[in-house]
């Protein structure tokens, strides 16, 4: 039987000048079923850390999350 | 037919992605967001750069496909989408006063017609209300007759 793969931790850096924190927080909440997430910020970027709840799903999670944040900003008229 | 890579597109065949550099003085940010939104179903998108100097949009095809032709096509399509939204925005700004005038006219007309309707109708969904004349009219008539007989 295969050992369960360690849940991957993914870090995403989103430029503060283009992405809104409210959209990121909303996206983290929406992705709750799939992963645990938290966001920190440095000078220029929001650094989002996602840890998938199930076995590693690779970079798909990262890309889908970024798309979701963009869609949220557009749908909520934040941009 | 092989597509020519536009000057603002950088191809990364290894990663299967393209980077499109955009001049924010030509295409404002809201136009970039609108164009990016259209591509969300077929590409993974990340926006970076400096909104005052140069915006960089990274697009990665959802279907794993490192075919340079398809990547270039996506880049060219994105450029077209930018132009389309920039034009739409320009037209919307141009037509804004006319649109506002039409809306104001429409709202004013509907307010006037609502005002007229409201003086005649009352909110009575179960039809219980009885007109005053119907309820008290017969009683008044009887009293009038009595006073006349006296």
Overall description:
The complex is a heterodimer of chains A (79) and B (150). Chain A has two helices and three strands; from the N terminus they run E-H-E-E-H. Chain A has helices spanning 21-30, 59-75, and strands spanning 9-15, 35-41, 45-52. In chain A, strands 1-3-2 form a three-stranded antiparallel β-sheet, covered by helices on one side. With 150 residues, chain B is of the alpha+beta class. Chain B has three helices and four strands, in the order E-E-H-E-E-H-H. Chain B has helices spanning 29-38, 68-120, 132-149, and strands at residues 9-12, 17-22, 43-50, 54-61. In chain B, helix 1 (29-38) crosses helix 2. The longest helix of chain B is centred in the middle third of the chain and has 53 residues, at 68-120. The termini of chain B are far apart. The A-B interface holds A 14-15, 17-19, 63-64, 66-67, 70-71, 73-74, 79 and B 29-30, 33-34, 36-37, 40, 44-51, 55, 60.
What's the shape of chain B? rod-shaped
Beta-strand segment tally of chain B: 4
Secondary structure: helix percent of chain B: 40-55%
Helix-residue proportion of chain A? 25-40%
Beta-strand residue percentage of chain B? 15-25%
As residue ranges, the low-confidence spans of chain A are 1-5
Number of helices of chain A: 2
Average pLDDT metric of chain A: 87
Name the structural class of chain B: alpha+beta
- What ranges of chain B have pLDDT less than 50 throughout 5 or more consecutive residues? none
Mean pLDDT of chain B: 84
Kindly state the number of beta strands of chain A.
3
Q: Let me know the largest β-sheet of chain A.
A: 3 strands, antiparallel
Q: What's the Cα radius of gyration of chain A?
A: 13 Å
Rg from alpha-carbon coordinates of chain B:
33 Å
Helix-strand pattern of chain A, N to C? EHEEH
Approximately what portion of the residues of chain A adopt beta-strand conformation?
Answer: 25-35%
């Amino acid at each position: 039987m295969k050992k369960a793969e360690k849940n991957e931790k993914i870090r995403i850096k989103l430029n503060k000048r283009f992405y809104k924190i409210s959209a990121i927080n909303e996206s983290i909440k929406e992705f709750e079923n799939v992963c645990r997430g938290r966001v920190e910020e440095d000078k220029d970027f929001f650094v989002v850390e996602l840890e998938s709840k199930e076995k590693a799903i690779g970079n798909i999670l990262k890309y889908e999350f970024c798309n979701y944040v963009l869609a949220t900003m557009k749908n909520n008229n934040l941009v | 037919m092989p597509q020519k890579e536009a000057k603002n597109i950088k191809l990364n065949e290894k990663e299967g992605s393209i980077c499109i550099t955009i001049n924010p003085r030509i295409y404002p940010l809201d136009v970039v967001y609108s164009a990016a939104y259209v591509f969300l179903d077929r590409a993974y998108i990340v926006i970076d750069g400096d909104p005052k100097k140069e915006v960089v949009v990274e697009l990665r095809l959802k279907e794993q496909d490192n075919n340079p032709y398809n990547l270039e096509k996506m880049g060219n399509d994105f450029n077209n989408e930018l132009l389309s939204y920039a034009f739409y925005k320009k037209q919307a700004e141009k037509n804004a006063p006319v649109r506002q005038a039409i809306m104001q006219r429409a709202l004013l007309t509907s307010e006037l017609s609502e005002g007229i309707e409201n003086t005649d109708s009352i909110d009575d969904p179960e039809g219980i209300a009885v007109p005053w004349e119907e309820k008290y009219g017969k009683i008044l008539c009887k009293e009038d007759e009595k006073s006349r007989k006296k």
